[in-house]
């Protein structure tokens, strides 16, 4: 799973964190709205936290037994496939103010599917490097604006990484990032992109 922020999230009030099963938890950066439930889920499942070195070390020091530190540009093979850590343009600090290293995204190759989880990021030309190495099936891109890209930049990002399927994320959780979903879908449609906006708890197959 990626960036678990569930317990304080009013939109996810129906989700029981203790019922969540995960073997690996990938963290894009250290902000509370991305790591809040990582420790609890990791302890419940003896899961491995995969994150930039500073965040992985922070969790290791908290007694999490299984962590895997990475840094930008690195790739590791896991039982489910490969994980490449790529750059993101965003700040990062941990909930107690500790150094969170730098923000990151991930490219995942697993079971015949390759996708990009952008994390929190601005639009950046570094995204153009991804299709030089990977043929993406879809991309999870932030669309909430204010702290990250908006839908207009996300459409450009999809062009940069050469995919026509966007799973929107990082929107509606706080007033700062509330969006007009119909407008976002129209922007994507006009750019010949499929924008998928999932419901909390929804499962889809791609």
From TrEMBL:
<dbReference type="Pfam" id="PF12706">
    <property type="entry name" value="Lactamase_B_2"/>
</dbReference>
<dbReference type="GO" id="GO:0016787">
    <property type="term" value="F:hydrolase activity"/>
</dbReference>
<dbReference type="InterPro" id="IPR001279">
    <property type="entry name" value="Metallo-B-lactamas"/>
</dbReference>
<feature type="domain" description="Metallo-beta-lactamase">
    <location>
        <begin position="14"/>
        <end position="170"/>
    </location>
</feature>
<dbReference type="InterPro" id="IPR036866">
    <property type="entry name" value="RibonucZ/Hydroxyglut_hydro"/>
</dbReference>
<keyword id="KW-0378">Hydrolase</keyword>
<dbReference type="InterPro" id="IPR050114">
    <property type="entry name" value="UPF0173_UPF0282_UlaG_hydrolase"/>
</dbReference>
<protein>
    <submittedName>
        <fullName>Metal-dependent hydrolase</fullName>
    </submittedName>
</protein>
């Amino acid at each position: 799973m990626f960036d678990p922020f569930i317990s304080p999230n009013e939109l996810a009030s129906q989700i029981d964190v203790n019922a969540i099963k995960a073997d690996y938890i990938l963290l894009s950066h250290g902000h509370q709205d991305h790591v809040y439930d990582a420790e609890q889920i990791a302890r419940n499942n003896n899961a491995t936290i995969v994150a930039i070195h500073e965040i992985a070390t922070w969790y290791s020091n908290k007694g999490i037994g299984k962590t895997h530190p990475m840094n930008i540009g690195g790739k590791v093979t896991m039982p489910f496939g490969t994980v490449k850590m790529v750059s993101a343009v965003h700040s990062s600090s941990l909930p107690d103010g500790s150094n969170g290293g730098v923000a990151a995204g991930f490219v995942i190759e697993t079971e015949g599917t390759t996708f990009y989880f952008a994390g929190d990021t601005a639009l950046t030309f570094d995204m153009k490097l991804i299709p030089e190495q990977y043929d993406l099936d879809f991309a999870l891109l932030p669309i909430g604006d204010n702290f990250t890209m908006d839908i207009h930049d996300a459409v450009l990002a999809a062009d940069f990484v050469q995919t026509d399927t966007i799973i929107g994320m990082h929107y509606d959780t706080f007033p700062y990032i509330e969006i007009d979903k119909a407008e976002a879908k129209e922007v994507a449609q006009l750019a010949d992109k499929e924008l998928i906006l999932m419901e909390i708890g929804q499962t889809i197959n791609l």
